[in-house]
Amino acid sequence: MSSILTTTACWLLVIYLALLPCLAQAEKDLFIFPELRTLRINSDNSDFSDTYATIDFFGSVRYDQFRFLGEIFLTEDGIEAERFQLGYDFSALSTAWLGRFHNPLGYWNTQYHHGTYLQTSISRPEIAKFEHNGGLFPSHVSGVLLETGHDINNDGALDFSFAAGTSPELRMGNDQSTSGLVLHPRELFSTGKGNHKLSLTARIIYRPESVQNNQLGFFASQANIKVSDSSIETIDLKIAGLFAYWQAQNLNFYGSLFYSRDNVNSANATDKGSFTSGYMQLDYLFSSDWTVFARVENTSGEKTDPYLALMSNFSPEAQVTGLRWDITRQQAIKFEISRKHTGTEEPVTTILNWAAIFP
């Protein structure tokens, strides 16, 4: 861990010194997202409780047509460089990025980051979980990201994203919160670690009113995943889906639907399968400071799919409800309770957290 910290610090220092002459004239933003969380998990076989803190640093720099975006996530276990992107604006609506970024797969993965303050709920949907938390699909990609937009009609707009880069490797997890095989994206400053193949993703978003966040979208992705610590050699994933976000007065609705076809390849055979998974969440703002939310998640085809048989940290069905209190314009306290259905048991998770944004 110390070598990773040292390498990360050295790279950040080199980049800072290289950009120092430009920083004085550049547009800069730095946001800090601290969180304190306590949780309890009750299941038929065991009970578990924990309290921990995290800090998410999110920064961006814009100088002329050049851009930089970075995100560093600190936990009790160490530090992770989650995003590190260098960009160039070809126009006001078109940008090319190089580095490690969030895969434009669905809605949640690019709308919210590792800090939980911006999202209404505490937890992410199962299908949108990050890799190290037991997620099913590539959340972080190292490569090239192209983003462009096009205004249509009087108010509407179309946004296009295309990502090409390295897929994660599937190997045994090294985190206490997960067990079994876990996806591991390419590490930013340890590029030789792991065996990473190709991931491709395309997404299109229609915004009927460009000044608001209401949107409808479609996405498609293909990823070839190398497997270690198993008799399986590779996994081929083909993913497609729809998503929506809609705000009407005091109600916010958002959801995504994923369809995945997978080939699980061993030395002598290929097992094929498919499954569908999605979520819907509704937020109701019954005052300026209080929001109640509920989310349902469900999956079909999970019992016969060979890829899901490997992913023991995924819960195919869940119900989530909770309450958010914005105690100030920059701080919130949230309470959430959920029941997940793993196939063998139905653990109930209760979470209380404090989340904030500074400055």
Automatic annotation (TrEMBL):
Q: Which protein, by its recorded name, is this?
A: Porin domain-containing protein
Q: Which organism is it from?
A: hydrothermal vent metagenome
